[in-house]
From TrEMBL:
Example of a GO MF term: amino acid transmembrane transporter activity
Biological process per Gene Ontology, one example term: amino acid transmembrane transport
The protein, known as: Amino acid transporter transmembrane domain-containing protein
Record keywords: Amino-acid transport, Membrane, Transmembrane, Transmembrane helix, Transport
PANTHER family: OS05G0424000 PROTEIN-RELATED
Species of origin: Lactuca sativa
Record carries keyword Transport: yes
Segments crossing the lipid bilayer: 49-70, 76-97, 134-157, 163-182, 194-214, 234-253, 273-294, 314-338, 366-383, 389-409, 421-443
Chain ranges of the Amino acid transporter transmembrane domain: 42-449
GO annotation, cellular component aspect: membrane
Domain of life: Eukaryota
Chief localization: membrane
Keyword tRNA processing: no
């Protein structure tokens, strides 16, 4: 999908030597969070690595389950449509960011965009907390998933092992605590390149494994009929749509854009092309192969179908390799979603007049980031049913940040005429996404109530 040309005002103005538009206002002085964490030194290729790690996470292993709730036809339509809408949405955000950068006022955070476009209260009291809560929730979910994957590897090697899930969450949390000290978002570019490669690796393993099982004598009977009746089936549809939307979610597009060195025009679009090449190839291969192999018996993570009880349907070395790739990639995801809270800590505790690695700034950074990871790890171990809660975060956080606010920001910034199709496309997406967010929230609360009787703190799930 090409970029949308809003108005003649989007045509690049002449630039000064500092890459601001001629006659533009002087740039604002940066606080320590923007100066240190969101260092603008990356290329469009680095941007592609960051985008891919933020979007393509092991949560995509739930796509076959979502397709099973929708069926082949509806499932493929929703999967394709969500990809098209999010690509369009992220491109709109990049156009707004480029527009303000050309005017000499570069917006480096989601809350900065809301502050300038909607008003100070929106940035401080709605968008800022919404993004921070959603991203920190994603950190907790990633640490939980990392611990679950480590436990799976352990039980493959030692089936009668006595270690609990909380032990593996603590191990993964300690690993994350060390990596969390990497000073800036831009510093993650090499880790996120490895993450991109790992995405292909575990998705290829998952696809090959599903096809192998589905074509073997071990395959379960294939049944693609929809499960549930009445209201349960309806909520299943909306649950599936929420799962698919969340797997395409990002929530930190402005922060990723902030890592790009000036001039920024066109670079985000190239990064999105890199990212969505990975997204489309992996999402469709995992979703289609998993649903084809297991039908409506597919589990919430398709890797669970690779085991029947304690008996693996694939060679142990293959399952160990697949889960090892997953653990390493989810670690990179965790680091990416720590960045918004890192920005807040640096802004609060660091001194922009001192060096980033000076003792004055290093000690507060070490303490604040360590406490952040320790709290997230404790919550992940305490709430192993956090997946249900994260669905609620997705409804209230992911959908507004990725499907609603980009449309609002674009229409308010460029003010397209109501006679133009872009205005109505944005309006329809925004209104439909608002309805989906509300219904998804109701469905998530309903699922929490249904599962509440199984909840137990520090459960060994």
């Amino acid at each position: 999908m090409g970029t949308v040309s809003p108005t003649d005002s989007n045509i690049s103005p002449p630039y000064n030597k500092d890459f601001t538009a001629v006659g533009a206002a002087a740039p604002r002085k940066l606080d320590a969070g923007a100066l240190f964490v969101l260092k603008s030194a990356g290329s469009w290729l680095h941007c592609g690595y960051h985008l891919t790690t933020a979007i393509v996470a092991p949560a995509l292993l739930s796509l076959p389950f979502a397709l099973a709730l929708l069926g082949w036809g509806r499932g493929m339509v929703v999967l394709a449509l969500a990809g098209i809408v999010t690509f369009y949405s992220y491109n709109l955000l990049s156009l707004v960011l480029e527009h303000h950068a050309a005017l000499g006022h570069r917006q480096l955070r989601f809350r900065d965009m809301a502050h300038d476009i909607l008003g100070p209260g929106w940035g401080r009291y709605y968008v800022g907390p919404l993004q921070l809560g959603s991203c920190y929730g994603a950190v907790i979910a990633c640490i939980l998933l990392g611990g679950q994957s480590l436990k799976f590897i352990y039980l493959l090697a030692i089936p009668d092992g006595s270690m609990q899930l909380s032990h593996f969450i603590a191990i993964f949390g300690n690993f994350t605590l060390i990596l969390a000290q990497i000073p800036s978002f831009h510093s993650l570019r090499h880790i996120n390149l490895v993450s991109l490669i790992l995405c292909f690796a575990y998705c290829a393993c998952t696809t090959v494994g599903a096809i192998y099982i589905g074509d073997s004598k071990k395959a379960p009977p294939k049944n693609y009929s929809l499960t549930g009746v009445g209201i349960n089936r309806v909520f299943g549809f909306f649950n599936a749509i929420s799962i698919i939307c969340t797997t395409y979610g990002n929530g930190i597009i402005p922060e990723i854009h902030a890592t790009i060195a000036a001039p920024v025009k066109g670079k985000m679009f190239k990064g999105l092309l890199v990212c969505y090449t990975v997204v489309i190839s992996n999402y469709f291969s995992v979703g289609i192969s998993g649903y084809w192999a297991f039908g409506n018996k597919v589990q919430s993570s398709v890797l669970q179908n690779f085991m029947v009880g304690s008996n693996p349907l694939l060679p142990k070395w293959f399952l160990l390799m697949t889960n090892s790739f997953t653990v390493l990639q989810v670690a990179a995801c965790t680091l990416v979603y720590l960045q918004p809270s890192n920005v807040v800590f640096e802004r609060k505790f660091a001194d922009p007049e001192k060096g980033q690695l000076s003792v004055r700034n290093f000690v507060p950074r070490l303490i604040s980031r360590s406490l952040s990871v320790i709290i997230a790890t404790t919550l992940a171990a305490m709430l192993p049913f956090f997946g249900d809660i994260m669905a609620l975060f997705g409804a209230f956080g992911c959908i507004p940040l990725d499907f609603i606010l980009p449309m609002v920001f674009y229409n308010l910034t460029f003010k397209p005429s109501k006679k133009r199709i872009v205005f109505w496309v944005n309006t329809v997406i925004g209104v439909a996404s608002t309805g989906l967010s509300l219904i998804g929230a109701v469905a998530s609360v309903r699922q929490i109530i249904l599962d509440a009787r199984t909840y137990r703190l520090f459960a060994n799930m």
